[in-house]
From TrEMBL:
It is found in: Secreted. Residues 27-279 form the Peptidase S1 domain. Keywords: Disulfide bond, Secreted. Pfam families: Trypsin (PF00089). This is Phenoloxidase-activating factor 2. InterPro entries: Peptidase_S1_PA (IPR009003), Peptidase_S1_PA_chymotrypsin (IPR043504), Peptidase_S1A (IPR001314), Trypsin_dom (IPR001254), TRYPSIN_HIS (IPR018114). The lineage of its organism: Eukaryota, Metazoa, Ecdysozoa, Arthropoda, Hexapoda. One of its GO terms (biological process) is proteolysis.
Amino acid sequence: PNQPSATASPPEECGIRKAGDDFDLKITGEDSETLFGEFPWMVAVLRINASSTNGTLICGASLLSPFIVLTAAHCVNKIDMSELRVRAGEYNIGNDHEETLTHQDRTISAIHIHSNFSVRKLYNDVALLSVNEPFHYEPHIAPVCAPFVNTEYSAKEAFNPRTCLATGWGKTNFGDRVFSHKLKKVDLTIVNHNDCQNKLRTTRLGAGFRLDSTFICALGLGDTCQGDGGGPLVCATKSNPNKYIQVGIVSWGIGCGKDIPGVYASLLANAEWLTAEVNTMTVFRPF
């Protein structure tokens, strides 16, 4: 009864990290630079207006399906939908010459912000964007796995907390005024809730700080920075070290790095909302 439309892409396995040799590209960067197409679920959220017709990068995001993009609520809660564009398949934000495959841009038909999102405290910092026309999966454009309820990715045991990473085009150092052009990655380890809360209490947040249960923390040698808000925190599955589940969304951090964990909106804590919302959006999709 439910015939897929002619334009629908074939289902793509989620969360597969690509190797550079998939794209015949010889770009080698520093350790922190990703390869073209390595993280095919990475999405750029751009804001288009009179002062910036090409669009300004405002946040990262990730691809859950051909028509659903996941980002942080704080990225989109104050912006008119008509000014937003989402771009999949992007690698070098300032320069397309090195890219063998082109990116795809889409406009937004709906913004679904978590019903319990707190602007002041950033609890439940999660939003889903519906695109007006589906993305077409290509070697460099594919979805990430997400911990939807009652799937093989929903159990905490499904992923390895020591092999995680975040990606983004953000400022590499706190206070830098420029975005990095090539997509960067930082290797991270999940930090348990109490340890994270204790570390954060040593900062200007103070000894009384309480870390809400809707957050998950991760620590690395570097840390993601401003400009990476909304981007994915992913961890490798235990069954396949090359397959990744998104466990968080970059939400906030105190400065960058310096032994203080970055704080992410937890997809595990928000799995029920996420699953229900995605199911609803999928049933009522416009194409």
